[in-house]
Amino acid sequence: MSITAIRGFNDILPGDSEIWRHIEKEAHGIFSSYGFSEIKTPIAEKTELFKRSIGETTDIVEKEMYTFADRHGDLITLRPEGTASVVRAYIEHKLYTTPVNKLYYFGPMFRYERPQKGRYRQFYQIGAEVLGDASPRADAEALAMLMSFFERIEVKGAELQINSLGCLECRAVYKERLKEYLSGVASRLCENCLRRMEANPLRALDCKSPGCIEATERAPSILDSLCGACKDHFEKVKYYLRLSGIEPKINPRMVRGLDYYTKTTFEITSTGLGSQNAVAAGGRYDRLVSELGGPETPCFGFAIGIERVALILKEGGGYKKPLTVFIALGDKAEERSIQLLKGWRERGIRVVEDFSTGALKNRMKRADRMGARYTVILGEDELNSGVVAIKDMKTSAQVKLPFDLAADRVSIE
Ligand code: HAM
Fold it and tell me: Could you tell me which residues come within 8 angstroms of residue 135 by beta carbon, excluding any fewer than 6 positions away?
């Protein structure tokens, strides 16, 4: 029996890896234009870090973490998300001596969830965190950056849903109101939500069990419990979003699966993913840094699910760089191809030269099996007239074009 990969852990193969690189490259470009710098943190941390930041009564901490004792007996956890690590590093390296830190990261995260389309046990996130900025403009700017990213890579139908979870004071008021409501519908709640009702009643709004969804349909809205300052913050975030041309959808039930949020929370969903339709999510977390032992530091951040974005791009055919196979016939053409293809590659064209020998017909078949979108032939006649023959492998149409124009032609999908 051959050995397979661990369930929920994926290989990213050629075909997909180009899409991944494209996503990553665009993210680096856009994030850097907003002044973000990359941070790389370890993929494992002390278990305590995630328990304290994500929250003891969340699904992630209760049942999804990859936790084990190392050889010394210390408990360590493969990171289920990136924010806790960034905050730990921010405190450990005293990054707070700079007024605002804009940091982003790319890497694998681990959650022991039931795998399905768009949901895996090892998955990649690109995340960004703004540490040290309390302004609602910081929320709106980060969201606008994220929406431009989705626009740039052509993720169609991205919808922004936002909510506010208030601050400690107004959330405490809301929790009481919600608890009162939940005790009235307690018989319809699942065991998990009943158990968490005292410590963390908000979890019931996030529960996927049909009974809880139905029972909480008429639950009071958190937006009606916000204090003046939180209401004002929320109104301003919406106002600045509209100035950026973004109309958010208000979703007062969105409480998110992590406990560190205060004020703004959000999710961006996209069509075509089935039930796992959130492509990015995040929000404000004004208390996490101080709770983990750092100075009071208001923060806002988000993470994008790369597998989900890659699925959308692949299914929509939204990103493809066509492959050209180049066939030179004869010594002179072979020699000319070296300089010619150097120029094409400098222009970003994806071209593989076929070094095989044999009948042209067989070499054309070989190009087809390599997945060529175009096959370009340079024979002696073409060389003498400064042209190449291009065969469109989809339509079988053939044209002869001068070298420069040929490069433009094979750039088109
Ligand atoms: P999250 O909502 O848990 O937030 O994850 C963010 C995104 O990661 C999701 O919207 C989804 O696209 C992707 N994702 C999550 N779990 C999986 C999975 N099992 N398989 C595939 N993709 C998945 C966070 O992780 C927060 N740290 C975001 C944040 C940053 N908040 C503030 N700063």
Answer: none
pTM of the model: 0.86
Report the separation in Å between the CA atom of 90 and the middle of ligand 1, taken as the mean of its atom positions: 20
345: its two tokens: 């590659």
281 Cβ closer than 6 Å to some ligand 1 atom: yes
Thinking of the domain 17-167+227-315, which architecture would CATH place it in? 2-Layer Sandwich (3.30)
pLDDT tens for 382-391 read 999 999 999 9
Question: Which of 58, 88, 109, 150 has most ligand 1 atoms within 8 Å of CB, for mutation?
Answer: 109
Q: In this structure, which topology does domain 324-410 adopt according to CATH?
A: Rossmann fold (3.40.50)
Mutate to test the pocket of ligand 1, among 10, 78, 270, 308 (most ligand atoms within 8 A of CB): 308
Query: How far is the centre of ligand 1, averaged over its atoms, from the C-alpha of 313 (Å)?
Result: 18
The closest alpha carbon to 143, from 53, 242, 231, belongs to 242
* Spans of all domains in the chain: 17-167+227-315, 324-410
pLDDT band of residue 320 (cuts 50, 70, 90) is low
Q: What is the pLDDT of residues 82-104, one digit of tens each?
A: 999 999 999 999 999 999 999 99
Task: For residue 253, report the phi and psi dihedrals to the nearest 5 degrees.
Answer: -90, -5
Nearest Cα residue to 276 out of 306, 254, 250, 308: 308
How far, in Å, CA of 325 to CA of 398, rounded? 14
Nearest CA to ligand 1 atom 23: 305
Q: State the closest ligand 1 atom to the C-alpha of 80, by its place in the atom list counted from 1.
A: 25
For residue 276, count CB atoms less than 10 angstroms from its CB and return exposed for 0-12, middle for 13-18, buried for 19 or more: middle
Q: Is 123 in the pocket of ligand 1 (CB under 6 A)?
A: yes
